[in-house]
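re: the backbone from monday

yeah here it is again, tokenized this time
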């Protein structure tokens, strides 16, 4: 008699912690709302997340996802950051095609201050050719609400990306293009604020 195939796990989780020292504490985000502290601090970080399979399996079905990230700088607590990301997504695989459609929300705090609340929609698809090379396309729309003194961060962000991965016996080569467009309420920003509304086009290669 044959044995039944092992069931797909209903959920998966991960966690990663770190510790170190930073001689000049600064924010990790690209758009800096605080200049470097010009002083050092020990730094502690925690990244944890989970995926729960609500229906179907990992090849086709609904999933609930969540990620928590915390970085602490005890000597300069105003630079400590917390990010919580939760949402639902649908995954589907059909032969050479796979795709994912998701809706997510996020919350970012800086020190004890509410920095941003985010809501986003995203879609991505991947196609594997007969030679095992891979096309990948992705789009994300995010609405941002700035909190408290950071109302000038309110607005929206869109990103679009495409890349192609060539498979070789000894390595993979990925060639890609990315487009980012921000529209933020920068007119309320302090004079020393680095704009969060750039339009960025990028080309990249990964070997």
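seq for it, each position gets an aa:
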């Amino acid at each position: 008699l044959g044995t039944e195939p092992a069931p797909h796990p209903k959920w998966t989780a991960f966690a990663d912690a770190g510790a170190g020292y930073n001689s000049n504490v600064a924010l990790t985000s690209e758009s800096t709302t605080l200049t470097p502290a010009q002083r050092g601090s020990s730094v502690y970080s925690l990244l944890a997340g989970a995926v729960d399979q609500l229906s179907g399996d990992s090849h086709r079905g609904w999933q609930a996802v969540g990620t928590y990230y915390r970085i602490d700088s005890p000597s300069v607590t105003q630079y400590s950051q917390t990010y919580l990301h939760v949402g639902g997504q649908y995954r589907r695989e059909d032969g050479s095609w796979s795709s994912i459609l998701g809706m997510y929300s996020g919350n970012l705090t800086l020190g004890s201050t509410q920095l941003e609340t985010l809501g986003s929609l995203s879609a991505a698809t991947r196609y594997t050719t007969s030679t095992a090379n891979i096309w990948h396309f992705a789009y994300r729309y995010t609405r941002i609400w700035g909190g408290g003194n950071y109302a000038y961060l309110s607005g929206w962000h869109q990103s679009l990306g495409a890349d192609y991965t060539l498979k070789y016996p000894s390595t993979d080569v990925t060639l890609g293009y990315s487009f980012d467009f921000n529209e933020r309420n920068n007119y309320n920003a302090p004079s020393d604020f680095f704009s969060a509304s750039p339009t960025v086009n990028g080309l990249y290669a990964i070997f």
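DSSP finds no helices and ten strands in the chain. The longest strand covers residues 113-128.
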